[in-house]
Amino acid sequence: MRAWEIQRPGPMGSGPLRRVDRPDPQPGTGEVRVRVLACGVCRTDLHLAEGDLEPRRPSTVPGHEIVGVVDRRGPGAVRFAPGDRIGIAWLRGTCGRCRWCRCGRENLCPDAAFTGWDADGGYAEYAVVPEGYAYRLPAGLDDTEAAPLLCAGIVGYRALRRSELPPGGRLGIYGFGASAHVVAQVAIAQGAVVHVLTRSERARALALELGAASAGPADAAPPEPLDSAVLFAPAGELVPVAMRALDQGGTLAVAGIHLSDVPGLVYADELFREKQLRSVTANTRADGEEFLRLAAALGVRPSVTVRPLAEADRALADLAGDRIAGAAVLVP
């Protein structure tokens, strides 16, 4: 099969991805193989390619927003039938025994495994997944629309919940890429007032098209105090900015897996009056199931730029250069 692998992590200009031909993967016990129909391009893929995240294995195929059709089942795999369309997401496995798994917080499992990090992902023609960690996909979404929902959507949804946005509340979104533009649609559909703050003029235009109440530069103050905020940009210097924008009792959730260093906070201005600062770590499968049902019910539709698999390196370079509005999706 044709695939891309991370050869030597480094800046995109150094060519960290390499096109390769590999044998088609074979599913093991309890696993299914899919023929990839679409794979979203996630900022986590960029962090892995550029070395912000330490590689966990050599020559890994990135990609964890995978839509595919089951074409082979391993021994004991019975959940899906050949021909079923399913989604493969970031969370790939947990131990099921630790205290985090037993209390419904499997996203914190110390032995968790992740697609495109611990195992090969979807920048390829075929991918394999344990059937218990795959998702059935809503029929109303086409392949390229469904792909970004499998990480940008699921993890963004967890971040939105972690921000404790009250009904009809005022939400600030910092950074406006694949995840943020999905979360904005969910929040607006549920009656929130959304203010977007991002450095990209193209992203600000998209935010207004989607119904945001305002869209301004990332370091600007929103037009009103915020009840909640989610930081999607991997820029630690925006944490104090967002904390100052919160109303008393407000919560900031930091959604990314990687963040540059956070400057010191001024307690009286940025944390006092019961403001909260929270991080977000991956997601549970329950988050995924809940979000996919909600996205279908609310009519969430990612804005996608479709690129051929052969241009995966260019798509990641465009993501690094803020040249993509919404989400990029690769198709074989």
TrEMBL record:
Swiss-Prot/TrEMBL cofactor(s): Zn(2+)
> Which InterPro entries does its entry note?
ADH-like_N (IPR013154), ADH_Zn_CS (IPR002328), ADH_Zn_typ-2 (IPR014187), ER (IPR020843)
Task: Outline the segment boundaries, as ranges, of region: Disordered.
Answer: 1-29
EC number(s) from the headed UniProt entry: 1.1.1.1
Instruction: Name the enzyme's class.
Output: oxidoreductase
Q: Which residues form the Enoyl reductase (ER) domain?
A: 13-330
Its recorded reaction(s) are:
a primary alcohol + NAD(+) = an aldehyde + NADH + H(+); a secondary alcohol + NAD(+) = a ketone + NADH + H(+)
Q: Which UniProt keywords apply?
A: Metal-binding, Oxidoreductase, Zinc
The UniProt entry, under PANTHER family, shows: ALCOHOL DEHYDROGENASE 1-RELATED, VACUOLAR PROTEIN SORTING-ASSOCIATED PROTEIN 11
The entry's protein name is alcohol dehydrogenase
What species is this protein from? Answer: Pseudonocardia abyssalis
